[in-house]
Amino acid sequence: MPPITRHQLKKTGLKTEPYSKENRPLDKRAALLDLVTNNVTGVKTSSQTTKPLEVVKNDDSTKTENTCKITQPKKEISQPFVAKKPETRSSAKEAARLSLNSSDDSNLYKSTLEETAVSRNSAKSDELYTTAVDSTHRSSLENNQSDLYHSAAQELSVNSNAEEIFEIDQSSWNNFMYVGCYARDIIKYLKQREDNFTVTDYINKQPELTAKHRAIVVNWLVSLQEMYGLNHEVLYMAVKLIDLYLMNNDTLQNRFQLLASGALLLATKVDERGEPGFPYDLVKHSKYIYTEDELFVTERELFRALKYEINVPLSYVFLRRYARCMKCQMILLTLARYILECSLLDYKFVTLKDSQKAAASLYLAFKMCNKVIEAKEFFKYTDYRVTEIKETVIELNNMLHTQSSNLSAVKQKYSHETFFKVANKSLLSNSKLIFD
Length: 436
Fold this sequence. Notes:
This protein is 58% helix and 3% strand. The chain is mainly alpha-helical. One of its GO terms (molecular function) is cyclin-dependent protein serine/threonine kinase regulator activity. It comes from Macrosiphum euphorbiae (potato aphid). InterPro entries: Cyclin, Cyclin-like_dom, Cyclin-like_sf, Cyclin_A/B-like, Cyclin_C-dom, Cyclin_N.
């Protein structure tokens, strides 16, 4: 006999299985509820009056007793089976709930309570474990912080015993701009690197270049720096890179300006905020004697010839550090910068250390401003004794007296009000230079 189809079941009025595809509940408990409901609705009510049915639930896990009473109607209401379903649906569901709460579902109820208890215990254990880990981690961090604090304090005390901390560094010890805690070490490091970038006498080895050619090119770089508002460090670095390159490489006179442009372009990439369109500007201001491609090739050649060592110590940086430690006024610092920038054009100062030129320029500025500086204090901040820079100070003073009127880019620059017109300040004779 072939199986009965679902279409035939619908005609006969028979109910499909609760787990059929058409009537499949989403929840296991809902499935049991529907199953009990269907069974209850199929049972005919008794015509006789029944006694109240007591359903007692003994829950071993909770040790409680629940008693529910179900009162059946006294008279039977004869209604069709299909019409009776909606009227008895609520009572059937109630009976289903009661039957689910009976002893047959006690195991399911008990397992649910056990799972809840286990989950609570596990959550509590996880919370206790997390709290313990957090407390352990926090204590370890506190210990580490305390260790770091004591080590830092010990290191600070050792350093303070070894060398005195400058007042200017102590005031900016935690300043991220001036980094007073590292400033002195940075200057020491730069002074150690000076020996790696010492320039020797090279002008006599060049086939076509002279000291005058060098002064003309440097004067042109000063005008470009002022025209485009570049940092002073860019100017000093460009001149230093030129000297380092010419010390070991020959350059023709007609290629000297191209070399200077490549050095300035390379310096802008090291110590400048940006250089939009700057290569084309260099070509334009050189009156198109070379192209941008030639400029880029020269820049790469310069970089390769210097073995990529271009982070050189600069006299401008040393001067700024010395003036800051001595709390110099801005007009005195500007005068020292003017003296130092004039020395860039003079070839005789090429072989000197940058820190020495900075110290000598600052000392000469003190004398020109009639300011008194003790030799002991000067040595404390510059590591140079007055006797060590005496000849350099005299050479710088002579340079100011013998400046060329044709190479006046530096003088015009520092004759402006922005620079306090320090270039117009009266000069001193060597006889008035008193070295204490």
